[in-house]
Write a structure and sequence with these properties.
alpha+beta; Rossmann fold; 4-stranded mixed beta sheet; 3 helices; 26% strand; elongated
Length: 122
């Protein structure tokens, strides 16, 4: 499932965190929520990422999508683009500090010894 929404929100959408929490509640396992932002304010993507994390979403990726195709044979810089922020339902609350899967934080003396290397004292 993919949920796509524009930003900024309509006045009747409610607070950003509440809106994104409603989107999170609708996501099926493996689903994503994409937020489309017109490139106007360079700080806005950060605000949306913070609201997403507060709503229990994991930030996956920032995609820059050109609104105009480049002209063939001409070097040009596109000033107009859309930011696409992609989120998924968090599997572990952000505040727990624990990571899932292969990125899990190692614990215990055996994990510490792996980081000491072959030289040095133990």
């Amino acid at each position: 499932m993919l949920i796509v929404t524009g930003w900024p929100l309509a006045p009747d959408a409610g607070a950003p965190v509440e809106f994104l929490a409603r989107g999170r509640a609708m996501l099926l396992p493996g689903g994503c929520l994409a937020v489309l932002l017109a490139h106007v304010d360079p700080v806005l993507p950060v605000d949306v990422v913070i609201a997403g994390k507060q709503a229990g979403l994991s930030y996956l990726q920032h995609i820059v999508a050109a609104d105009q195709p480049p002209t063939r044979g001409q070097r040009t810089q596109l000033d107009i683009h859309t930011d696409v922020l992609v989120f998924a339902r968090a599997t572990v609350p952000e505040s727990s500090g624990k990571l899932m899967g292969s990125r899990r934080e190692p614990k215990g003396s055996s994990a510490q010894s792996r980081y000491r290397g072959s030289g040095g004292s133990r």
